[in-house]
Amino acid sequence: MRILNTLLTILLVLCAGCASQQPLSNYARPGDTVMISLGGTDNYATAPVVRKENLSVTITDALSASYPVKVRKLFRVYSDPTSGYEFRSRASGLTSNDAVLRPHQGMWLAIIDLVDGSDNPLPLAVGASSLSVSSPDLVSTSYYSGWSWTNGNLNNIPLEILAGTGSPNPLNYLAPVNYEPATSLEPQPHVQVTVNGTPNTFVGGASYVFSYRHDDFGNGLAAPYVVTTTPDPYIQLGVNRTDQGDGTTLLRVNIINPKGFNTDDSKLDLIAGMSMLGNLRFSIVWSNPAVDDSNWQSSLQLVSSDYFDLNGDPITGLIPQLTKAR
Known about the structure:
Blueprint: H1 3-13, E1 27-28, E2 33-40, E3 56-60, E4 66-68, E5 70-78, H2 84-88, E6 106-113, E7 127-134, E8 157-161, H3 181-185, E9 190-196, E10 203-213, H4 214-217, E11 225-228, E12 236-243, E13 248-261, E14 282-285, H5 296-299, E15 300-309, E16 319-324
Parallel strand pairs: 1-8
Antiparallel strand pairs: 2-6, 3-4, 3-7, 5-6, 7-8, 9-14, 9-16, 10-13, 10-15, 11-14, 12-13
């Protein structure tokens, strides 16, 4: 089973608003590797990032014996920008299932091994089994209440156990990505910057100034960098750094949409190039794991933030929110 080759196909077909109905593949031997989807970023995730350390997966076999399985990798993928989901989810006026979804969502995928804590194949009985996913970062409910199809249930993901014993897929090398491409897909440590509040007019964008300590992050490629956390094509991001000469750097971030951000998270005028207010967000990412949940606020500080309307005039009603997402 070549999980990563399969993944490239999955990116073309997965609906970012749906949770998993079955793993890929839906059958395996004890010791094998399978992949499951955990749902869309905004429909199922309760946090900016689903953390692997918060994720618990168990399997119950045909004889009702339950075992924890190993969650090896957890990462998010986004749909092709030319896909039907990306096109239809932007306009609530379209008669389409995709049209009820929030646009630009990512899909969380987990690669799991059917092994114990010592990487030994689990003693699973042959036949129908089920996986159960638990995490404070996820909501295991159907988003489509009362609709005709069977939506995913993270508490009962069917998996057929075959006779024999397998081994974890090495997941090594998919030219020219990386020797361990799945490892490279997992989120780095980062802070997500969002806004709270409701402005009284369309938002044109925002300007932020941060200060960070060189010794905590490093210089060059190790320095914190800024990325958007949504594939919204109409958002523009600008970044500038100024060394203060005292061991700190000022990091200036401008995020704009010339057509504006809505005053709420409705889809009003998205088809005309506007963005949802919830997409007024970005992440500051770094590589040093020593800057963690307990100390990042001493290494990185928000100095100022300003919000402006479509004419560039200052507006009020918005408050910046920094969340250590990973």
